[in-house]
Amino acid sequence: MKNLYIVVSFIAISFTVSAQDKNTKVADKLFNRFEYNDAAKEYLKLVENGKSDPYVYKQLADSYYNVFNSTESVKWYAKATETSQDAETYYRYAQMLKANGKYEDANKQMKKFAAAAPNDMRAKAFNENPNYIPRLLDKTKLFNVNGSDISSDKSDFGAVLYDDKVYFASARNGARKTDGWTEEPFLDIYKADYNADGTVTNATKVSDLNSKWNDGPITISADGNTAYFASESFKEKIATPKDKKANAKFSQVFLFKATKNGDKWGDITSLPFNSKEFSTANPCLSRDGKTLYFSSNRPGSIGGNDVWKVAINTDGTYGEPQNLGNKVNTEGNESFPFIADDNKTLYFASAGKPGFGGLDVYQIDLSNGSEATNLGKPVNTEKDDFAFTFNSAKGAGFLSSNRNAKDDIFGVSPICGVDVQTIVTDAKTGAILSNASVSILDDKKNVIATEISNEKGEVNYRVECDKPYVIQVSKDGYEGNTFAVAKSKGPKVKVDAALQPIDVIVTETEIVLKPIYFEFNKSNITQEGAFELDKLVQVMKNNDKMVIMAKSHTDNRGADNYNLILSENRAKSTVQYIVSKGIDSSRVSGKGMGELEPKVDCGTQCTEEQHAQNRRSEFLIVK
Question: Over the range 256-280, which residues count as b (16 or more CB within 10 Å of their CB) and which as e?
Fold first, then answer.
């Protein structure tokens, strides 16, 4: 992503340049001025003329990395790493491999990175879960992502919806000066109409805020009268100290505040915590107007760019900027914060946390100390995905991504989902039960997924809104049970799954269970029957010498011979189920009794309930 970390402009000072050697002098100068495309062309000339070495390979790879040309960067990182490299090079190589979907190769480079920088949080996260990609791919889809008519043929990003207006940054203004890094016009802030049908039209420049430098992205207060936006320190006639290698002074990214007077923006002021020593960018104002979030590489950052926040006092002054810490930030780059209307859910982009490649969007609840979670696909891809924003009142938001080779804006809409939390306990003591099997079934009794309860007795599922579900729970020593999950729009449903300890009556001659009933004319074990048979299995596991015989009975409908065959099949199904639960086949046998031994002798006048009572299995203790 070309416009990600900083937007810079330069003022050339002289033609003298410090270079790695005379051969790379021109290429190094371009590289140090952030003109990566032109730098790559010069390094390639050296390769073609037989003047390449590991330094040139690495510079080529980094040039392509900085403009997110993953195919070329992988090619040259492969050459560079034929010799020993610094840890960050291995990390970048891994990121570019992931961007090409080469996860196994990426893991090999991550192992080298982790060995070279074992204390790096990114290395620790990888070592703890090196094969995290399948889990990310299995994540429940949270949002739909669609192309947006807001995008142009140039870079567009950072869209945010306020009321019926969409604000974003764009390089579409062909009349602007060309940026040496992006080879596109400088950025402007734009405003467009958000229509009732979700389309975005009538994009126009916000001329009051734009300058001759790069401008944007922007955030606006709830009342629409205050804006904070990113621009360049050149606007304040402030530049970095002369960079001798680049023969230039550079502009940092600054944050500015503007207030609205009628239909015009004015009173533009630089925020007091800007500095020519570092960049401060990508602002997001909380809806209550009390906190401004932003990204910066200021002192105190864990990595390159981190997410920070600063309090906005009632008198208009600002508190001391605070780093959001290692729940959010890594030694990599984190940027583009967006705080939701609930003032606790933060969305941000990270290239340092385990993801699909490049930048991924994460969310974190700042109120409870939880870990940040990857939003999964289709929000995230193998490319750069960033600047996720969401308007809860409209139920719509935006995402920026270079998944189509340039920075584009995409529309996002939430998929209505319900978080179902099941907590398994002992019904008699209330004790938490871990290691219980918890399945969730749809309304057709199809098992969607099965998980094991954790040390807190918890299993969490995310399901679709307005659909009924069933939670099915089992654990050795307890009666299995099902718990209905009613239709809901969420956001959360709690299921208290209290299991009864198995209390089976065992006499000298038989094991007394609730009747194992069968459906009419069928021999398969029903879910209710399985719960009862699990009790029998537990008794047999606790008494490893016990041998039983299962007697299966039918009702008196149908021919005698047919009923005998049917009962034999039911007996076999019963035995097979018991054996499938780990009981040796030598300890259990079955016999079909047909209609010979009815439990209720009702002749030809049986009710449906009496027929059901006669369709049963019984369990005799053989020894």
Answer: bbbebeeeebeebebbebbbbebbb
Separation between Cα atoms, residue 546 and residue 557, nearest integer Å:
34
What are 355-380's pLDDT values in tens digits? 998 899 999 999 988 899 999 999 99
With a cut of 50, say whether residue 613 has pLDDT above it: yes
pLDDT band at 1 (very low <50, low <70, confident <90, very high): very low
Going by C-alpha positions, the residue among 409, 573, 421 that lies closest to residue 3 is 409
Q: Hey, what's the torsion of the CAs at 236, 239, 240, 243, to 10 degrees?
A: 170
Cα separation, 92 vs 77, in Å, equals 9
pLDDT for residue 5 is more than 70: no
C-alpha neighbours within 13 Å on the C-beta side of residue 320? 4
Closest C-alpha among 412, 332, 411 to residue 372: 332
Q: Round to whole Å and give the CA distance between 333 and 348.
A: 11
Q: How many residues does the chain have?
A: 623
Q: How far apart are CA 290 and CA 311, in angstroms?
A: 6
Cβ count near 21 (within 10 Å) = 10
Range name among 44-48, 71-75, 255-259, 614-618 with the lowest pLDDT average: 614-618
Give the DSSP per-residue string, 77-93. Answer: HHHHTTS---HHHHHHH
DSSP string, 566-585: HHHHHHHHHHHHHHHTT--G
Distance CA 4, CA 358 (A): 11
Q: What distance in Å separates the CA atoms of residue 183 and residue 556, rounded to the nearest whole number?
A: 86
Q: Poorest-confidence range of 29-33, 205-209, 423-427, 428-432?
A: 29-33
* Per-residue pLDDT band at 4 (split at 50, 70, 90): very low
Radius of gyration in angstroms for the set of CA atoms belonging to the chain, rounded to a whole number: 33
Which ranges constitute the DSSP H helices of 132-180? 133-137
- At 105 the three-state DSSP class reads helix
Confidence (pLDDT) at 18: 39
Q: Residue 230 in contact with residue 255, Cβ under 8 Å?
A: yes
d(CA 165, CA 192): 6
Alpha-carbon distances, residue 379 vs 141, 146, 360, 401 (angstroms): 9, 10, 8, 9
Those residues with Cβ within 8 angstroms of residue 492's Cβ, 6 or more apart along the chain or in another chain = 418, 419, 420, 421
Tokens of 223: 């009342």
To the nearest whole number, what is the mean pLDDT of the chain? 88
Global pTM? 0.67
Whether the pLDDT of residue 14 is over 60: the answer is no
- Strand locations in 177-217 (E): 188-194, 200-205
Q: In the numeric block, which tokens belong to residue 74?
A: 């992988």
Q: How far is CA 117 from CA 172, 200, 352, in A?
A: 41, 46, 14
For residues 408 and 145, is the Cβ–Cβ distance under 8 A? Answer: no
Question: Could you read off the pLDDT of 218-234 as tens digits, one per residue?
Answer: 999 999 999 999 999 88
